[in-house]
Q: What sequence folds into this?
């Protein structure tokens, strides 16, 4: 059996999760479940980034210790994954003992010549946890958070990223490191061709409040969050703590896939592969980069004050309805505006009137005619669906499935089976019902990665010895 590894990024826990992270969770879950549908043993990793300085500042503002803040908020992020039915195999917390052990091991695994200590003075954005050059700023402000960076001067350890410029360009151009969509691949190459600068991988322990992974052999320093956080992709499957698991899901894995947001492309497509090359470890094979969710054109963010809480949406519409909206309404790799009215429209049109109506009418026909279950068959995966998912085109994949939903609804309309039932000719319906139920079961099987709860309900309902009408999958909203 082939193995697959899929990960989300790990978000800071300085505040509650917003719907933007729900998008990333759902996209990664679809990829992992899709691999499993094809017979792979897929390991899905998500978790929380807890060693950032912004978490320290957030804890101070609430009168909490960093540990108290991280424990409280990490539970909320894990709760979101559970509420969305995310099939993760491990939830990594970067403040855990296992992660500290693995991050320390990774530091020492990097080539000694690649890590140098020097004094540095630069423009630092706490929100990004990153240094900027003046040329990178927008009107003197951070291009992501819109704030003026502060000047920081201290002695840190640096990683010689510049030594890997040619190797990184070759990896991306050759496709050995696949970046989707094409625009993000070109962006990464453009950044490399501007000339790579060595980057700081540690921070002063005192300025960081003593919070973070200690640098091996230097108690005055902790690892920079964008060094230690990236190693979660290794420590999650067991680097430094469970070598058998790590070998299975990273070193000997057929598919290693990261799902990330566009604002952290540089760290994942450039810094992370270089660090892995230095440590002599395999690289990810694919990096899928999604866009930002926006409200009235403005990026959703904790610092923007416009974060949309996903939990009320899940309570009002259900997990699968929110999953469907995020996958169907937001074009892969592009920004998308969040609109509850749009969610309601898609819910009624596609879920209630489309799939829900199809299942309900077939259940009613089977109940009235006494039609029993249909023998299961192998899942037939339409080529268009497979191609769309290979490109991480989730909306395109769902369009393919809903074309089948629409086609089946039209077939039933044309056959007018309810008229045959009125004339007591139910026996003649048996062949039609067998075919229609078989088609619905085929739809449910390819729907599993997208709407797992819905697919399970469909398959359970049509596998009973006597098929009967059940509660609507998606009650129509008025």
A:
């Amino acid at each position: 059996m082939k193995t697959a590894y899929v990960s989300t990024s790990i978000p800071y826990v300085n505040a509650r999760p917003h719907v933007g992270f729900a998008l990333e969770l759902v996209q990664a879950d679809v990829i992992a479940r899709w691999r499993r549908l094809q017979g792979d043993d897929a390991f899905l990793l998500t978790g929380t980034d807890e060693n950032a300085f912004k978490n320290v500042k957030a804890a101070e503002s609430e009168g909490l210790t960093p540990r108290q803040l991280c424990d409280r908020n990490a539970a909320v992020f894990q709760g979101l994954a559970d509420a969305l039915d995310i099939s993760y195999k491990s939830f990594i917390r970067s403040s855990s003992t296992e992660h500290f052990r693995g991050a320390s091991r990774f530091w020492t695994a990097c080539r000694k010549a690649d890590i140098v200590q020097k004094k540095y003075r630069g423009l630092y954005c706490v929100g990004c946890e990153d240094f900027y050059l003046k040329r990178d700023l927008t009107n003197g402000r951070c291009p992501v958070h819109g704030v003026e960076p502060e000047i920081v001067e201290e002695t840190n350890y640096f990683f010689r990223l510049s030594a890997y410029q040619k190797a990184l360009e070759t990896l991306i151009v050759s496709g050995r490191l696949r970046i989707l969509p094409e625009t993000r691949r070109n962006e990464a190459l453009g950044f490399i061709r501007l000339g790579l600068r060595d980057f700081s991988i540690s921070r002063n322990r005192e300025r960081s409040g003593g919070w973070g992974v200690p640098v091996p052999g230097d108690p005055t320093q902790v690892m920079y969050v964008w060094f230690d956080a990236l190693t979660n992709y290794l420590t999650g499957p067991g680097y430094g703590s469970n070598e058998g698991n790590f070998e299975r899901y990273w070193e000997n894995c057929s598919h290693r896939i990261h799902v990330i947001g566009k604002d952290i492309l540089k760290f994942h497509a450039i810094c992370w592969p270089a660090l892995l090359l230095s440590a002599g470890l395999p690289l990810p094979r694919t990096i899928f980069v999604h866009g930002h969710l926006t409200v009235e054109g403005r990026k959703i963010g904790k610092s923007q004050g416009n974060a949309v809480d996903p939990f009320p949406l899940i309570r009002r519409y259900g997990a699968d309805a929110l999953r469907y909206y995020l996958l169907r309404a937001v074009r892969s790799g592009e920004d998308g505006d969040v609109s509850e009215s749009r969610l309601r429209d898609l819910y009624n049109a596609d879920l209630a009137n489309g799939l829900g109506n199809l299942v309900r009418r077939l259940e009613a026909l089977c109940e009235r005619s006494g039609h029993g279950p249909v023998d299961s068959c192998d899942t037939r995966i339409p080529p268009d669906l497979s191609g769309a998912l290979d490109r991480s085109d989730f909306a395109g994949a769902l369009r393919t499935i809903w074309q089948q939903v629409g086609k089946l609804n039209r077939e039933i309309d044309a056959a007018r089976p309810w008229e045959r039932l009125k004339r007591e000719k139910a026996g003649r319906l048996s062949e039609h019902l067998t075919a229609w139920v078989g088609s619905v079961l085929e739809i449910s099987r390819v729907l599993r990665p997208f709407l797992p709860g819905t697919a399970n309900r469909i398959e359970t309902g049509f596998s009973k010895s006597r098929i009967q009408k059940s509660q609507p999958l998606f009650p129509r909203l008025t």
Summary: The chain has a mean pLDDT of 92.
